[in-house]
Specification:
Layout lengths: L7 E2 L2 E9 L5 H11 L3 E13 L2 E7 L2 H14 L4 E4 L5 H13 L5 E3 L14 H11 L5 E2 L3 H8 L9 H10 L4 E5 L7 E8 L5 E6 L9 H14 L4 H19 L23 E2 L2
Parallel strand pairs: 2-3, 2-5, 5-6, 6-7
Antiparallel strand pairs: 1-11, 3-4, 8-9, 9-10
Helix pairs in contact: 1-7, 2-3, 3-4, 7-8
Length: 281
């Protein structure tokens, strides 16, 4: 075989998250998002779920030691340009992820603190939350809670748009470097998300609600889209704006499709881009 000089590589994005057997959320949604945005996706699976559009029927956690082996296997060989973290079901799993961030000096890490599925099923043990805050909030680039998750973290309800920016600051006071608080669970047709970076003025993203029952995996897909945009070289503000645009169109393009009998998935593949490449460093 002729020798070929290797000169380029793909933007590499790793999802550390649970598996959704129904394909709408978790690592399945993350991989679809990475591919749609022209990135090379990888996974380190934290848990298996028996799940469909109607809900979560069972969860089987992956042992922390095996998660560590997955991470070592990927990071010792392929490496990453950005990381998305999703479902972390137990304290020892959180600690393994924190170890990997430190040991491999991981950059552009987006944490989606997955606690409750779209169906309302709880996906995280309560004792894990304090470990998540202590070990990961100071280490990651961005956290992306929805209103329910932020309310749980802060121990108070968030009932209107005016409560969003104070909540983002409160989450930063808990140790986060930057927070994207998603306001989609508030009633009405006006959607507001707030991005707060520690020490900077907040940025507000406003849009009109797209009515659809097919919103399963929206949070997973948004956080993975932000990670992909960071891997492609965008700054945080631009990455969030581009990721929101991708998710809005994925919701719109999937609104009239039936998949199962409950909350169906987004249309991640509405306009996939060619796999991107960049010079090999």
């Amino acid at each position: 075989m002729n020798d070929i000089t290797l000169t380029h590589q793909y933007p590499r994005v790793l999802s550390i998250a649970g598996s959704d057997s129904g394909g709408g959320a978790g690592i399945q949604a993350d991989l679809k998002t990475f591919s749609a945005l022209g990135c090379y996706g990888m996974t380190a699976v934290t848990a298996l779920t028996a799940q469909n559009t109607l809900g979560v029927q069972a969860i089987h956690g992956v042992p922390a030691a095996f998660l560590k082996t997955q991470l070592q296997s990927l990071l010792d060989d392929i490496g990453v340009d950005a990381v998305k973290i999703g479902m972390l079901h137990s304290p020892d799993v959180v600690e393994v992820v924190a170890w990997a961030i430190d040991h491999y000096h991981l950059k552009h890490v987006v944490l989606d603190p997955v606690m409750v599925a779209t169906s309302g099923d709880r996906l995280i043990a309560e004792e894990t939350v304090s470990v998540l805050v202590r070990e990961l909030f100071p280490k990651v680039s961005l956290i992306t809670p929805n209103l329910d998750e932020a309310s749980w973290l802060l121990g108070r309800p968030l009932n209107d748009v005016n409560s969003l920016q104070p909540a983002t600051q409160a989450l930063i006071d808990m140790g986060a470097k930057a927070v994207l608080l998603k306001g989609g669970h508030l009633p009405g047709d006006r959607l507001v998300d707030v991005l707060q970076v520690n020490g900077q003025a907040a940025s507000h993203f406003e849009s009109t609600r797209i009515h659809s029952r097919n919103v399963h995996g929206t949070g997973c897909s948004l956080s993975s889209a932000i990670a992909a945009q960071l891997a492609l070289g965008h700054d945080l503000l631009s990455a969030v704006a581009a990721a929101r645009g991708f998710i809005r169109e994925a919701i719109a393009q999937g609104a009239h499709i039936q998949t199962g009998h409950g909350h169906g998935p987004l249309n991640h593949g509405f306009a996939p881009v060619v796999m991107q490449v960049k010079p090999l460093r």
